[in-house]
Specification:
Helices cover about 5% and strands about 15% of the residues. The chain is built from 2 helices and 6 strands.
């Protein structure tokens, strides 16, 4: 069991596990080693709220082994840039993003839907705000229109349900 509040023991690979507040299968940019985590839960969470002490640091291997935002992160499953995590769009493409929701992404170059499976841990830090793509104003509904046919919304903070 783990001593720190809000943590749980997760298995990384055979013979290694650690107490963590969360775990995403794949590489973890804060881990000393680039080998991926399996994130097998081993026991229950320790009661209480988790507090970072000290804040996590990006490890040196991230610059050499992880993807930048100009390429797919499908193979590396990790991102070089602060505040980003690798999310899968479809069977052949994944991209480093701050957040991801299934369906069309208003910051993507096209309106094809995302699957949004997170493939690895988030790189610590704060990412800049993404820019809205040009297709959004042409295809997506405004907050006063029906979004049923487009499946997306133009207005920031709105989602089509």
């Amino acid at each position: 069991c783990c001593k720190a509040a809000g943590t749980r023991c997760y298995g990384k690979q055979k013979g290694w596990a650690a107490c963590r507040n969360e775990c995403v299968a794949g590489p973890d940019p804060t881990d000393l080693y680039p080998s991926p985590w399996r994130c097998t839960p081993l026991g229950r969470y320790t009661p209480g709220h988790y507090m970072w002490h000290p804040p996590p640091k990006v490890q040196p291997w991230v610059r050499m082994k992880c993807s930048n935002t100009s390429v797919s992160c499908m193979e590396t499953r990790c991102c070089q840039d602060a505040g980003l995590a690798c999310f899968q769009k479809n069977y052949s493409w994944a991209h480093c993003k701050t957040i991801c929701a299934d369906g069309p992404d208003p910051t993507d170059v096209n309106n094809l839907p995302w699957k949004c499976k997170q493939l690895g841990g988030r790189t610590p830090g704060t990412a800049p705000a993404p820019m809205t793509a040009k297709w959004v104003s042409k295809i997506c509904a405004t907050k006063t229109e029906n979004c049923l046919s487009s499946g997306c919304c133009q207005d920031p903070g709105h989602t089509c349900f």
